[in-house]
Amino acid sequence: MARLTDPDSLAKSSPREMEADMPARNSKDPQARPFPWPCSNCATLTVVPAIVDYAAKVKHDGVVHELQVPGLEVPRCQTCGDMVITTAVDEKINDAIRSRFGLLTPQQIRANIDQLGLTQQELAEWLDVAAETISRWMTGALIQSSRMNKRLRMFFAFPEAREMLRRLDREPQLGTEVRLQTDAANKRLVGDSR
Questions:
Q1: What is the 3-class SS of the chain, one letter each residue?
Q2: Distant-in-sequence, close-in-space partners of 61: CB < 8 Å, separation ≥ 6
Q3: How many H-runs (helices) and E-runs (strands) does the chain carry?
Q4: Whether the predicted model's global pTM rises above the 0.85 cut
Q5: Does an H or E element contain 107, and which?
Q6: What gap in Å lies between CA 57 and CA 141, rounded to an integer?
Q7: Which letter does DSSP use for residue 83 in this model?
Q8: How far, in Å, CA of 28 to CA of 87, rounded?
Q9: What is the pLDDT of residue 171?
Q10: Residue 58 has what pLDDT?
Q11: 80 neighbors 39 (Cβ within 8 angstroms)
Q12: Which stretches does DSSP call E strand in the chain?
């Protein structure tokens, strides 16, 4: 359950003072209007910015996880306690999810695509996903799975991985049988102690 970090802060501050403490809103956000807002739950005009310790259950990779986001700035009704999850709040929650699971951010994905000189369509073809999926990762509208995150990291980090993907397209027999490495360093990587 979300709770205020300083329960007296609402009593000490006017809605206008609290609004001044909130970060600037995106002008495209339909919620970018002066406080107080009407509450959709209790119909009072008492929704103002509040600092809460946000707790939620989130599902990632098919598993439900507890997520804690301390000090989250969120519009909240002073009367009934109902919170309004705006686009800006949703982005902060998604950032916390990405941080918790060690996932690349949309900015990192975009920067890596740009550094490699790829288009979204080209990356989609490399990773065998839809171009719309790449677009959603880059805009933050979709959080990639841990499996796809590993694939992205490997693709961006290792030229050898990109070369292997090129070869798989040209040499369909690759991967049909196991190739064992014989040098000592590679044996240690796979746990072979011989």
A1: CCEECCCCHHHHCCHHHHHHHCCCCCCCCCCCCCCCECCCCCCCCCEEEEEEEEEEEEEECCEEEEEEEEEEEEEEECCCCCECCCHHHHHHHHHHHHHHHCCCCHHHHHHHHHHHCCCHHHHHHHHCCCHHHHHHHHHCCCCCCHHHHHHHHHHHHCHHHHHHHHHHHHCCCCCCCCCCCCCHHHHHHCCCCC
A2: 145, 146, 147
A3: 9, 3
A4: no
A5: helix 106-116
A6: 19
A7: B
A8: 10
A9: 92
A10: 93
A11: yes
A12: 3-4, 47-60, 63-77
Name 100's Cβ contacts closer than 8 Å, sequence gap at least 6.
Answer: 65, 67
Low-confidence ranges of the chain (pLDDT < 50): 1-28, 30, 193-194
Token look-up 């996903």 returns 129
> What pLDDT score was predicted for residue 8?
37
Give the model's pLDDT for residue 51: 98
> What pLDDT score does 169 carry?
86
